Amino acid sequence: MNILVTGANRGLGLSFIKLGLEKGYQLFAGVRTLDNKTTKALLELKDSYKNQLHILQLDVTDEQSVALAANSLKESGQTLDVIINNAAVLEEREQTVEELDIEACMNSFNINTLGPMRVVKHFLPLLEVGTKQSIVNISSNAASLTHAYSGDYPYGLSKVALNMFSEKISRELKEKNIRVYSIHPGWMKTDMGGEQAHLEPLESAIGIYDIIEQKIDINSVYIDYQGKRMDF
Ligand code: NDP
Questions:
Q1: Residue 182 near ligand 1, beta carbon < 6 Å
Q2: Which end of the chain is more exposed for a tag (fewer CB within 10 A), N or C?
Q3: What is the DSSP track for 154-198?
Q4: Is the CB of 65 under 6 A from ligand 1?
């Protein structure tokens, strides 16, 4: 399987890369910046997996960067089976509407919603025709309207919009047999989730690979990392 992961240099993104390499897949690791500090963990992996790991500059806020990354794959004759839109930001956690930083809201939408839209727009032509093709948008329980809580305006709203994007493309891509998921990965011990979180990102990645590999029967778009339906 050939898999693209955005935000692949740390957190859940890096766990997708490590686990995918162990499974023998080809991994295309999108990173915002190609400097040695950002890509250190990936470069270390490349020592052991040089034929399976491909590092791409891919800033999801920059359409040209996304288009160039997609073109570089096209030109080398590559195709994809899975797109994992993982890159995201959780802005300063303001609590009240008076504290709202509108710039932060725009930044969150730019990364968390428009980022996956740019990636799907440019990488969709690379998705092979087959039976295991999927687009995985990493969402959050913060996107549930049913279980909404106060605060986290930029993040919550941007992930709700991401869920709508997932729902819409799942309809558009049904006839191409491309599965689309918006997945809550659980509360994970990453820079974003913090130390008190319940899950190691690797556990979440294991569950999400089970979904991608169709080991679990799924019939909804918004689900958690174990394949359980989430309430929109
Ligand atoms: P981290 O904050 O640990 O990592 C975020 C990743 O996104 C980094 O690799 C970062 O790159 C990348 N990124 C940010 N902006 C851009 C950009 N413009 N272009 C490309 N890459 C970018 O997050 P997690 O690993 O915790 O989160 C992964 C996913 O899971 C996210 O979608 C998040 O919303 C979701 N999630 C996480 C939860 C948690 O508990 N951690 C809970 C629910 C959902 P860089 O290093 O360059 O900044």
A1: no
A2: C
A3: HHHHHHHHHHHHHHHHHHHTGGGT-EEEEEE--SBSSTTT-TT-S
A4: no
